[in-house]
Each structure stands twice: as C-alpha cells, then as structure tokens.
Amino acid sequence: MAEKQNEAAAYHRENLFSYKIGPRFFSLPLKEVVYLYTEKENPGHINLLAVTRKVTFPGNLNALEAQYPMLFRCDKSYLVNLSNIANYDSKTRSLSFIDGSEAKVSFRKSRELVAKLKQMM
Fold first, then answer.
1. Domain residue spans in the chain?
2. SS3 of residue 118 by DSSP
3. Which site in 13, 72, 80, 113 is 20 to 30 Å from 120, CA atoms measured?
4. Which tens digits make up the pLDDT trace of 52-110?
5. Virtual CA dihedral for 60, 65, 66, 67, nearest 10 degrees?
6. Which top CATH class is 33-120?
C-alpha cells in the first residue's frame, strides 16, 4: 500500500522525472533531463541522458511522452527537453544540447519544433 502511494506521488510531481529499475525508484529534477532515446539494438529500454547521469531503464517513449507533456518528441526515437537545447540548425534539422550532444529532428516535427522554440523566447 505505501509503495503504491510512493510510486503514485513520484510519478505525479511535475518538476521531477521518475523511473524504475527493478524494484528501485529513482527521481531527478526534470530540468536536468537533456533527452531520452531508444535504440534498435535494445528494444523495450529507454536511455536517459541527464546533466548528472546517464542510465538505461525499461519502458517506452509513448508512455513517457503522455506522462511528461513538457518533453518534445522530435523523432520516433527521441524525446527532448526543450529547455536544454543550445541551438537548432533548421537546414540539417539537428539539435545541439547544453552538454554538447546532438539529436536529429524528423522532417514532420521540424515546423512544430520551430514554433515551440519561438514560444519559449
């Protein structure tokens, strides 16, 4: 009972990103999340790249996209935190992040991304 309440509380805090590995729950401030991505070689697992850590945990991007609407789906394999973008090159459709990493933006999501970035200015 208490575990269910803790799990529910962890997942409902808007300023925290929470994930589970086995029986353990982890949380970090959402502002530290740079992006989440999946790899074809490791289906059913999500890679989290954050300012303070890099981890892999079981899950899928569709569920996380619904759970954290402040994260943006720029490609079928990437869910990015718009507040951690350093710059966006619309010609190459390439996002650069504050930690120096990069992600590609799909052609279909490029226009939506530009609109969201303009809203943030």
1. 33-120
2. helix
3. 13
4. 999 999 999 999 999 999 999 999 999 999 999 999 999 999 999 999 999 999 999 99
5. 90
6. mainly beta
